[in-house]
Amino acid sequence: MSEEKFYFQSEAAELLKMMISSVYSNKDIFLRELISNASDALDKRRIECLKDTELAENTDPKIIITADTDKKTLSVSDNGIGMNKDELVKYLGTIAKSGTKEFLKAAKNDSTHNELIGQFGVGFYSVFMVADKVEVLSRRLGTAETYRFTSDGEGSYTIADAEQRDECGTTVTLYLRQNDDSDAKNYSDEWTIRGIIEKYSDFISWPIVFKDKTINTQKAIWQRPDSEITEDEYKEFYKHLTHDWKEPLMHIKINAEGSTNFKGLLFIPSEAPFDLFMNPESGGISLYINRVFIMNDCKDLIAQYMRFVRGVVDSEDLPLNISREILQDEPIIRVIRRSTQRKIFAELKKLLADDREKYIRFWTAFGRVFKEGIIQDREHAKNILELALFRTTANDEWTTLAEYESRMKPGQEGIYCLAGRDNLSALKASPKLEPFMSKGYEVLLMTDPVDEVILAQASFILPAEAKKFLNVASDDVTPYTDDEKKENDEKAKALEADFEPLKKIALEVFPEKLETVRPSFTLGNSPACLRDTLGGVSLQIENMMRAAGQFVPEQKRILELNAEHPVIQKLITMAKDNDGKVKDMVKVLYDQSLILEGASPENPAEFVKLIDDLMTLALVD
Ligand code: ADP
Question: With a 6 A CB cut-off, is 170 part of the ligand 1 pocket?
């Protein structure tokens, strides 16, 4: 094969452009990325050889670094799994990472990209921060051909046949940029290279050889005593493990001894990756058996709602030939899973008590995912609720349930809450809060989609002695005493005859949507409000289920009209006179109530037209 030219997938090309122009200050990390890839390739080779006995075990696995100061080149070479031609195209010419599109979109709005580069982790492409040309020579394990991939990062690359490598593996050679900037580091300089490897790659479990000497200690960080390890070492290990350029929020060490022995080093990232919510598979824990890497993203080691936790678990008690398929039924794995879970709960509890600011960062990033556990894991629902933070009508801070309970008014029956749209300020404007606020009650504001489900199921999930969640949107939850309720009922009764014509018109306009229409004396400044019927499904859940493709029968709701509001009072009179305009007004009120529920008007064009007509009426003679 002569040389063949390829174009980078458009997203990859965009990312490359970003790298070439990057002003990211820590360019050193390109070498960490290359060594990390080499180390992964050696892991993969070892595992493939275990599975396929035809392939010879690698007897001398290592990573070799070479540099030439005169030619300004730097190479990272491994005798790992290597790549064939298709794999070079697939792995280096495209980006398979989920969340790439989102990343690029976000990066367009941030001219420096640096913070974002940190969140995304661009891996191999980071070489273009320091090199103007890159050559990759690779031979796949089990094949005879060697290919040369060459690129200057400017949109295209070439792949050609190359002279056969003695052994499978990959050599990445960087032609370093000639830099006019005298402060810029010389990445072909021996001490610069040593410094970077010592700082970032010391714990890599394969030897890193430079100038014929192994320069990393290869000590598994989770096997070393805590007192020996610096914060920096933890951070670098985390970055190697996760390919996240950001520092982790915290690390958690586990040292379990007893009937099952294992060590663990877990991390909570400081920010949610782009795809955490879309892709429940992201994240993960790597499994090691007696310091030997077995697999990454071992889902059986961690509960799904803790999928943001990253790290390593290492046990001596598991058989080396364990496979993903049987992991789930392995009692030791179950023991490990339970104890990591316990430890994570305990550490989060400590963090909540000791460092509120940091805890809030955790909660902002991962609270939505963590809360899924309330539904998934009944056994620990109480633990999770104790760790949950909520928004509240009392102030602009986050609050725990315990803090809310300490502020409850004497005799208050339970925890008042309102769940809804993901927009906090919209939720705060809900007319449903009015009666509670005016009576001095605090209401928790729940803005995550999962909150609706938690509220709906709380009574089955929570232990009997726990304080009840009272959904203020529900028709049977009111802040009023029996006497006050009676008084409101009497007011409604007195109004019944006058209200009837308006009710009739509204029910004629929305026969499918409304169960009933009734006057209310508790809505404060809002003219109208939609309420779910007892046992009915809320608008949010209805929309969520529809979006998920599930069938939901059309739900009828209750339209409450504020009998103390001048607009409603006027409409009551107009309806009695059979005024044709009442219908349109009722439509506007209904759509307004939908908007306050976080939904859209039934027919936006008609809604806009009605508002236009009203403005014309008000403003134009
Ligand atoms: P990441 O390592 O985060 O997946 P990279 O851009 O660094 O992203 O690498 C992309 C892919 O290219 C890797 O997942 C791997 O499959 C392949 N690759 C990179 N370097 C090597 C190497 N030295 N040996 C074998 N495969 C490699």
Answer: yes
566-576 and 581-596 helices, crossing angle to 10°: 150
Helix (H), strand (E) at residue 35: helix 29-51
Instruction: Show the CA angle centred on residue 341, arms to residues 118 and 462, nearest 5°.
Output: 110
State how far the Cα of 502 lies from the Cα of 500, in Å rounded to an integer: 6
For 305, the token pair is 């709602």
Question: How many C-alpha atoms does 289 have within 13 Å on its Cβ side?
Answer: 14
CA 476 → CA 433, 471, 472, 544, 594, distances in Å?
Answer: 14, 9, 8, 24, 21
Atom of ligand 1 nearest to the CA of 80: 24
What are 123's two structure tokens? 């891996």
473-516 pLDDT, tens digit each: 887 888 998 999 999 999 999 999 999 999 999 999 999 999 99
Measured between alpha carbons, how far is 378 from 334 in angstroms, rounded to an integer? 17
Query: Ligand 1, closest atom to CA 97?
Result: 4
Give the number of the atom of ligand 1 that is nearest the alpha carbon of residue 243: 3
Interatomic CA distance for residues 301 and 279, integer angstroms: 18
With H, G, I as helix, E, B as strand and everything else as coil, classify residue 604: helix
Which pLDDT value is given to residue 105?
A: 76
Query: Given the DSSP bridges, would you call strands 63-68 and 146-151 parallel, antiparallel or unpaired?
Result: unpaired
Whether the CB of 517 sits within 6 Å of ligand 1: no
CA distance 471 to 196: 56
Burial status of residue 106 (CB atoms within 10 A of its CB: 0-12, 13-18, 19 or more): middle
pLDDT of residue 276: 63
Residue ranges in the chain whose pLDDT is less than 70: 1, 23-25, 96-99, 109-122, 180-183, 274-283, 421-422
Find the radius of gyration of the CA atoms of the chain. Answer: 31
Distance (angstroms) between ligand 1 centre and the Cα of 91 equals 6
Ligand 1 within 6 A of CB of 351: no
Ligand 1 pocket test: pick from 11, 15, 40 the residue with the most ligand atoms within 8 Å of its Cβ. Answer: 40
Structure tokens at 113: 């990209």
Whether the CB of 37 sits within 6 Å of ligand 1? yes
> Cβ of 411: how many Cβ atoms within 10 Å?
6
Counting ligand 1 atoms within 8 A of each CB, the residue from 91, 136, 239 with the most, and so the one to mutate, is: 91
Is the pTM higher than 0.85? The answer reads no
Alpha helices in 202-292 (DSSP H): 231-242
Single out the residue of 412, 437, 439 nearest to residue 427, CA to CA.
Answer: 437
Please tell me whether residue 334 adopts helix, strand or coil conformation: helix
Pocket test for ligand 1, best of 9, 35, 37 (most atoms within 8 A of CB): 37
For atom 21 of ligand 1, which residue has the closest CA?
A: 37
d(CA 192, CA 212): 17
Tokens 């007897």, located at residue? 59
